[in-house]
Write a structure and sequence with these properties.
This protein is of the alpha+beta class. The protein is built from nine helices and four strands. It folds into two domains: 101 residues, no CATH class; 81 residues, no CATH class. A four-stranded mixed β-sheet has the order 1-4-2-3, sandwiched between helices. Strand 2, helix 9 and strand 3 form a beta-alpha-beta unit.
């Protein structure tokens, strides 16, 4: 009897546990999904292609201008000279330092060419060269000084004496005699002179020969390298 009661108690407990298990709500598993940040969209980058192209064009124009300047194509021929090239650069970039300096270099180059023309007695050509420089920059102090040199030169007489290239090459007796006569005349007139020789060595030989012909008297002359040998004598009036 007691065993039967214990059995009944056990069955009752089993039934109660089953009922409790059936009534208990299932446990739901919580799933955590990590938040994903939105994709980063890079801001648009400004393109420098246009500025790069402009800089390249300016560089090409400045190079062309420098080549023209090197070849003494200063303001001629029209459309193909250093001045026109520099002006084209300034139309694109008004403050371009290289172009502005290039134009001033043209002014100085004209002054230098004018001095060379003056030294050879080519006064009209010198005046024309200075006029071109004046058009570019009339306020440069070097222009005034060059005009004074030209004015002084116009008060003198320039005489050109040709030298035979063949006789000069072999340093013949005839050439020695001719140079001696020229040196004595220069000494008598107290004139200055310019030796135009084909090489520096040739020019130094001419000057040495002339000086020896006047007993070492200090002749006032300069030496220039040129294709045609001659002597320019500047005789003061």
């Amino acid at each position: 009897m007691q065993r039967f009661s214990m059995f009944r108690v056990g069955c009752c407990l089993l039934v109660i546990n089953l009922l409790l298990a059936g009534c208990t709500a299932p446990i739901k598993e919580t799933v955590y999904i990590p938040s994903v940040p939105p994709p980063v969209v890079p801001e648009p980058v400004q393109s420098n292609a246009g500025e790069f192209q402009r800089a390249r064009i300016l560089a090409d124009m400045l190079y062309s201008a420098s080549i023209a300047l090197e070849n003494n194509k200063l303001m001629l021929p029209a459309g193909d000279n250093a001045y026109d090239r520099f002006r084209e650069v300034l139309e694109l970039d008004s403050g371009n330092a290289v172009a502005l300096a290039g134009i001033q270099e043209i002014v100085l180059r004209y002054i230098s060419l004018a001095d060379a023309a003056t030294a050879q007695g080519l006064y009209n050509e010198a005046e024309s060269l200075l006029a071109r420089a004046t058009r570019l920059n009339p306020d440069r102090a070097e222009l005034s000084a060059a005009r004074e040199r030209l004015a002084t030169a116009r008060l003198t007489k320039v005489e050109m004496i040709e030298l035979d290239p063949a006789e000069l090459s072999i340093q013949s007796l005839e050439m020695l005699t001719r140079l001696a006569d020229i040196a004595q005349r220069i000494q008598k007139l107290e004139a200055t002179f310019l030796i135009n020789a084909r090489t520096d060595e040739e020019g130094r030989w001419i000057y040495k020969t002339m000086r020896e012909a006047v007993g070492g008297y200090r002749l006032r002359g300069n030496l220039n390298i040129a294709g045609t040998p001659n002597i320019l004598i500047t005789i003061p009036k």
